[in-house]
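Q: Structure tokens for this one, please.
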Amino acid sequence: MASSRSEVFHCCYACLRRSALRTRTFTTSSARRKHGSLPAFTLTSSPDLDAMLDTWRSKVFLPSHLVKPQQALIYKKKNHHLLTGEEPVTVSVGSEIHTLVPLDHLRDEPNTKKSFQQILALMQAPADWQNIVGFLEGLRIARRTVSLAMMQKLVRKANEMGRQGTVMEILRGVERTGVVLRDVDLVREIMIGAVMRAQKAGWDNEAVIEKALKYAEGVVELCEDPRHTEGRRITAEDPRARPEVLGIAVLLASVKAVRFHESRDEDGKVKRDAERMMRLWGNRGLRINGDDLHSANHLLVTWSPVWHGMRMALECMGEGSDLASQLQDAMTQDLEPFLQKAKDILTAKKPDAKQPRGLNMYESLATELSS
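A: Here is the predicted structure, written as tokens:
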């Protein structure tokens, strides 16, 4: 004879209500086992962050792991009396037992965008970042939308805190996190993290430069991963077709060769990546919308590292080579006029309170890589 636990998932809804009165413990069905256990969160540096993660786990992620009859128990008011009796109604998810409580979608469930921003603001210690993959996994299972702008903010905060390894974990775990490298703006932000890693080391630590280069190369490889390409055709705006993405790899490979190997391209990576970048140069799409601060700022953040990569790559190449000529022309004729225009716009119109990110990138690289 089938046990009462099994009966919950193989009978009609009326039977479920009767079963709830007879037994107080249920298990998830095979239809939900594909989700596995609930995301587990470690203690963070902030009690407020711990509370927020716990709220999401109990009020959003747990319900998303339940089968429909169990969801009906917690969400439908007519069933709430079944959960408020003397004996708690519990459910087994993975290896954990959870008590079911009445919930209201509007009253009890947190807003995704607002919570995402608050969680990022509260993540200050390195250990706090151990929870972000699980949080993204929970959002995916709960079918909560993580917008491009939200992911860009996450990557930017991770870059600022030196958590590029966490970003790579998110990307490699695409099946869990749902974060796909389909948007070039997101990939640009991720690649800037490789530059920032080298900047924090002052560009004078070969081991750090090598790690930053491997990180950039790993992102480029993931852009070609079938899990990220999703069968898409390559267009001019696809990350796989963007010269500025490869330009970061050119920069780091060139810095390594120039600063630590007397400008010798010993592993051939400068030539390899520069050739690949120039094959894609026709997709560069450089533009500034009038004297718009945003587009000028965006251009300097994205393309300043590429210009320095081209300049340093030339130091590794023999004069008169076809590749050197292509790089020289692209750098001086195509890229420099736009960088200068963007710099002039930001210098003339920058806010008094804070220097624009693009101007900071432009000036810091000029200082750091001039010698």
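A few notes: The beta strands are 25-27, 90-93, 96-99. The two ends are 80 Å apart (CA to CA).
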